[in-house]
């Protein structure tokens, strides 16, 4: 499809890494309608543009001067022949039900099979460096991968997670020069996985796992999975 910046779609979802992954079906929908999609992100999430690359999609800094920025803080959906503004970040404020599902209800689009549209380029060199040199893991080594952190940095929170593995534990950390994508090799080769409900849910749905048990721990007390229960294909044990 020819590049057409005369038809612009602007999506408001500057934070929430999992939300950005989940919304790629929406991105592809508007690209398919002939729109050029601008997707502003918080400055510390701009690394996403190096992994999710699509023709007619541009991730940009939320602080930059992008087209139709005057609409960016608006809460109302706008659609006409040459411009669409999707306030996905605010959708659950005026659409009932799941926060995530409300983003698609806003534009009357089904979110089914969103995984097919969430495609990304893996940096195999970074993945191997993290696996072998930083974490000192070996091929076929047995370990449990856990992640206690949720929420977009620097406003992340932590919560203890349940696991049954007796042996080496690899806990996800925020490491300079490595992104959430660069943990793919570590995740794929774990014998057990236990994470809090976060962006990893979406990433893991795209990976080929060796793990036999996968625990998904609610970020809420008491546990509540109503916002994500219908989203994933991974065989999660909900905790």
What separation lies between the terminal Cα atoms?
A: 45 Å
Helix content: 10-25%
- What is the approximate shape? globular
Radius of gyration: 19 Å
Largest sheet: 5 strands, mixed
The residue-averaged pLDDT reads 95
What does this structure look like?
- With 239 residues, this protein is an alpha/beta fold.
- Helices cover 18% and strands 18% of the residues.
- It has six helices and twelve strands.
- It has helices at residues 17-22, 24-32, 99-105, 124-134, 184-188, 200-204; strands at residues 8-11, 36-41, 57-61, 78-79, 83-86, 144-147, 149-150, 157-158, 169-171, 192-196, 213-217, 237-238.
- The chain has a five-stranded mixed beta sheet with strand order 3-2-1-5-4, with helices on one face.
- Strand 10 (192-196), helix 6 (200-204) and strand 11 form a beta-alpha-beta unit.
- It is globular and about 60 Å long.
- The protein starts with 7 loop residues before the first strand and ends with a strand.
- The model has no long low-confidence stretch (mean pLDDT 95).
Secondary structure layout plus pairing:
Layout: E1 8-11, H1 17-22, H2 24-32, E2 36-41, E3 57-61, E4 78-79, E5 83-86, H3 99-105, H4 124-134, E6 144-147, E7 149-150, E8 157-158, E9 169-171, H5 184-188, E10 192-196, H6 200-204, E11 213-217, E12 237-238
Parallel strand pairs: 1-2, 1-5, 2-3, 6-9, 6-10, 10-11, 11-12
Antiparallel strand pairs: 4-5, 7-8
Could you provide a short overview of the structure?
18% of the residues lie in helices and 18% in strands. It contains six helices and twelve strands.
List its salient traits.
239 residues, alpha/beta, 5-stranded mixed beta sheet, 5-stranded parallel beta sheet, 6 helices, 18% strand
